[in-house]
Amino acid sequence: MNLHEFQGKEILKSFGVKVPMELVATTPEEALEAANKIHAEKGCTVFAVKAQIHAGGRGKGGGVKIAKSIEEVKMYAEQIIGMMLVTPQTSAEGKEVHQVLISENVYYDGPSKPEEYYMSVLLNRATGKNMIMYSPEGGMDIEEVAEKTPELIFTEEIDPATGLLPFQARKIAFNLGLSGAAFKDMTKFATALYKAYEGSDSSLFEINPVFKTADDQILAVDAKVSLDENALYRHKDYLEYRDVREEHPIEVEAKAAGLNYVALDGNVGCMVNGAGLAMGTMDLIKQAGGDPANFLDVGGTADAKRVETAFRIILKDPNVKAILVNIFGGIVRCDRVAQGVVDAYNNMKNAINVPIIVRLQGTNAVEAKALIDAQEGLNVISAVEFQEAAEKVQEVLVA
């Protein structure tokens, strides 16, 4: 589950990671009030106004502005709230901005030079260990840094049994070229950041930039946080962070129906039971010349109601030109799935306007095929072999 920047920082702060003083606003008036509160407490007259959407690269799309007065905060909030923000990580239509984050100025003068770093915590699947990836080149796309100057990307692998050890935190601060008070603060920052990642059961913490102020404080100026949904039962308070406005509406509907659905850009709708079979089905569609329009796993209880719900969700995508149903009858009987397809088709005659290819293998597969073939007026094509099903999809696409 992805979080907004301000939500990620709330988690960071709860684990002792230092962040700037910031307040969220949903209207220009709230933004003005937030700026006045920050000014009263911090005395600053320069503020960052940052759009809150689930996408990076907000500054490139005009979603981050530096206000040099309290009055400018309201002006920029009026511009940003309600805009369709297009970034390298959004669609061409962009995402609507519903709120902004008003942040204190951290680029003030002091005895040392301000610096920006990159730091993220994630799982290294190759080794089965968590790792901290970091670089002295903060504020930039880490992919660009890795491509042009790979020697400036450092990693620190962490044994899950011990956590981040003190010598590893010091090594991070040393590789970032820090000394004195900034060195000590960075070791505390890295340690607290890892505790936040582990304690919140996150799948990703990305801080870009980690900022060293002119008086050698280390702050998380930005935060991209993704929580592991499988662990949310341990963090019920985090459930309130979900912002369905930032999620694909069809995916939200599918989740409410208990279906595992991910929208894609293709033209062939997929209805499959089992994640592995679903991935294989998508690969075969692609190999046969089609493009999957979705990942949809109906699970092991593909009864008539569930199949009908899956059809309705798939058909909400206007790009779908054909649907491939690929079910392996292990837990579920194929004839029951076939009856579900027939019932769903009869209940949705006016809604189903694309051909359906059905491949059922496993328990009672012969009876299932006979059931479908016996139906009259049913725009359903049955297949036996995996490859045959993909080829039939291609045939109906070019017909």
TrEMBL record:
Pathway: Carbohydrate metabolism; tricarboxylic acid cycle; succinate from succinyl-CoA (ligase route): step 1/1. Keywords: ATP-binding, Ligase, Magnesium, Metal-binding, Nucleotide-binding, Tricarboxylic acid cycle. It catalyses: succinate + ATP + CoA = succinyl-CoA + ADP + phosphate; GTP + succinate + CoA = succinyl-CoA + GDP + phosphate. Its EC number is 6.2.1.5. Binds 1 Mg(2+) ion per subunit. GO terms for cellular component: cytosol; succinate-CoA ligase complex. Belongs to the succinate/malate CoA ligase beta subunit family. Heterotetramer of two alpha and two beta subunits. This is Succinate--CoA ligase [ADP-forming] subunit beta.
